[in-house]
Design brief:
The protein is α+β, with helices and mostly antiparallel strands and 167 residues long. It has a domain at 2-117. The protein is built from 4 helices and 8 strands. The mean pLDDT is 93. A two-stranded antiparallel ribbon has the order 1-4. The protein has a two-stranded antiparallel ribbon with strand order 2-3. Bound molecules: protoporphyrin IX containing FE. Protoporphyrin IX containing FE is lined by residues 43-44, 47, 106-108, 112, 114-116, 119-120.
């Protein structure tokens, strides 16, 4: 939070208290924070593929029969200790270097990757900058990070209670 606020203050000083949409992409730490949040909490934690009829592809050591349904868990990939150091810790700096392909895919991957990805990331940044430029945010003590699965997406099980104080 402190690093984000510091980055934002710098931008707001440069632009005399205002922020400009075109400059949102200069906020590199904000970008790392959003990436790390979506690593630990991919909004779509699981997706499914089905082998088409008449095909039987080989994946690694496995020959997969036609029409097999394959469940792919981004949640599990994103927390795999073989691929991530301290996988359960929130460390935005781990995204300074891009992860190897297919280790991180909060918006899916390949030809069916989410078409709303750039739009969503931009909207998230605009919203966060609007809030963080005016308020300090503190998490209510005792808040859990537990999630529940609902209609293909995850959400905070007990809500997220925060205290906003005007800057
Ligand atoms: C936080 C926001 C979002 C997340 C986490 C998200 C995530 C995903 C994921 C994981 C997939 C791939 C599903 C799969 O491979 O089976 C997907 C596909 C898709 N998303 Fe999103 N999405 C988000 C927002 C949006 C928005 C805002 C739009 C539209 C403006 C959108 C439109 C689509 C469409 C049309 C597909 C299907 C693409 C295809 O199958 O060719 N998404 N999304």
């Amino acid at each position: 939070m402190q690093k984000l606020q510091a980055e934002l203050s710098e931008l707001l000083v440069d632009y005399e208290g205002e922020f400009h949409l075109a400059d949102i992409n200069q906020l590199h730490y904000l970008d790392l924070v959003i990436k790390e949040t979506l690593r630990l909490y991919p909004a779509v934690p699981l997706f499914i593929r089905e082998v088409i009829a008449g095909k039987s592809p080989t994946l690694g050591d496995y020959k997969i029969p036609e029409k097999t349904q394959i469940f792919i868990s981004s949640w599990a990939f994103h927390r795999n200790p073989n691929h991530w150091q301290n996988p359960n810790e929130f460390i935005p700096e781990r995204f300074i270097d891009a992860p190897p392909p297919f280790h991180y895919f909060p918006f899916g991957a390949g030809p069916r990757q989410c078409i709303g990805m750039a739009f969503t990331l931009f909207c998230t940044k605009v919203k966060l900058v609007s809030i963080l430029s005016q308020y300090l945010i503190e998490l209510e003590p005792g808040t859990t990070y537990d999630t529940q699965y609902f209609s293909g997406t995850i959400m905070p099980r007990d809500g997220v209670k925060v205290k906003l104080s005007k800057k």
